[in-house]
């Protein structure tokens, strides 16, 4: 697992899983945490227990049904059911916020006091539609953010529609795109920079990066763009 290198308060716990260390087989090998991708449910549940135990989590993570929306939910306890959302915020100690990814950008957030945390699934649609801005509205005081493993700027090929979705909102977003040298009309997008720009517009400057590309490291990360049918890693945050 990966522990963020950031200046979060000591009471905050955060991590991202990698694909090694689980029991899943085939295209889901091995620590697949996604129940929705076609893997054996028994294997996924075993994998989830592995990461929960390894990370000494205080309870079962709050798993979301992620739909590439901009919806962020505020929870004060584990709801006991799966919620349709792409971000989860809590002010309750011991509630483990979680998001699953396989190229999209996982974003973990805390305030400077460490009594508010959130986990956000930020694909390009969610970013363009304001999921980070929606997340920031829940927080009081300074926000500290960390971006986990995601598809890198040299691998994320997009079309003109994606460029337009961001540049129509903020002209500075063009700095996060470069024309593809081999595919006319295609661009390479820097998800982490796009997210950083959105944070900066909200006054959030304490933004940290894992600098890990899921697409480029097949042995370490699941990547939907690379493999199609594949598993999911996850990013978690809670406070004690």
From TrEMBL:
<dbReference type="InterPro" id="IPR003730">
    <property type="entry name" value="Cu_polyphenol_OxRdtase"/>
</dbReference>
<keyword id="KW-0378">Hydrolase</keyword>
<keyword id="KW-0862">Zinc</keyword>
<dbReference type="Pfam" id="PF02578">
    <property type="entry name" value="Cu-oxidase_4"/>
</dbReference>
<dbReference type="InterPro" id="IPR011324">
    <property type="entry name" value="Cytotoxic_necrot_fac-like_cat"/>
</dbReference>
<dbReference type="GO" id="GO:0017061">
    <property type="term" value="F:S-methyl-5-thioadenosine phosphorylase activity"/>
</dbReference>
<protein>
    <recommendedName>
        <fullName>Purine nucleoside phosphorylase</fullName>
    </recommendedName>
</protein>
<dbReference type="InterPro" id="IPR038371">
    <property type="entry name" value="Cu_polyphenol_OxRdtase_sf"/>
</dbReference>
<comment type="similarity">
    <text>Belongs to the purine nucleoside phosphorylase YfiH/LACC1 family.</text>
</comment>
<keyword id="KW-0808">Transferase</keyword>
<dbReference type="GO" id="GO:0005507">
    <property type="term" value="F:copper ion binding"/>
</dbReference>
<keyword id="KW-0479">Metal-binding</keyword>
<dbReference type="GO" id="GO:0016787">
    <property type="term" value="F:hydrolase activity"/>
</dbReference>
């Amino acid at each position: 697992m990966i522990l963020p290198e950031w200046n979060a308060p000591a009471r905050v716990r955060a991590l991202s899983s990698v694909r090694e260390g689980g029991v899943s087989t085939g295209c889901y090998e091995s620590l697949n945490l996604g129940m929705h991708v076609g893997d054996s449910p028994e294997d996924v549940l075993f994998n989830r227990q592995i990461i929960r135990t390894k990370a000494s989590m205080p309870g079962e993570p709050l798993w979301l049904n992620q739909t590439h929306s901009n919806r962020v939910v505020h929870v004060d306890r584990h709801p006991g059911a799966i919620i349709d959302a792409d971000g989860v915020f809590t002010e309750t100690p011991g509630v483990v916020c979680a998001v699953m990814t396989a190229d999209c950008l996982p974003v973990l957030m805390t305030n400077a006091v460490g009594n508010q945390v959130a986990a956000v699934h930020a694909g390009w649609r969610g970013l363009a539609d304001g999921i980070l801005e929606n997340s920031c509205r829940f927080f009081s005081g300074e926000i500290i953010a960390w971006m986990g493993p995601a598809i890198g700027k040299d691998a994320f090929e997009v079309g003109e529609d994606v460029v337009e979705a961001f540049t129509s909102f903020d002209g500075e977003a063009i700095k996060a795109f470069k024309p593809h040298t081999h595919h006319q009309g295609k661009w390479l997008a820097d998800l982490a920079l796009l997210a950083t720009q959105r944070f900066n517009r909200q006054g959030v400057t304490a933004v940290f990066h894992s600098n890990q590309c899921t697409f480029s490291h097949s042995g370490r990360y699941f990547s939907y763009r690379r493999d199609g049918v594949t598993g999911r890693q996850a990013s978690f945050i809670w406070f004690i």
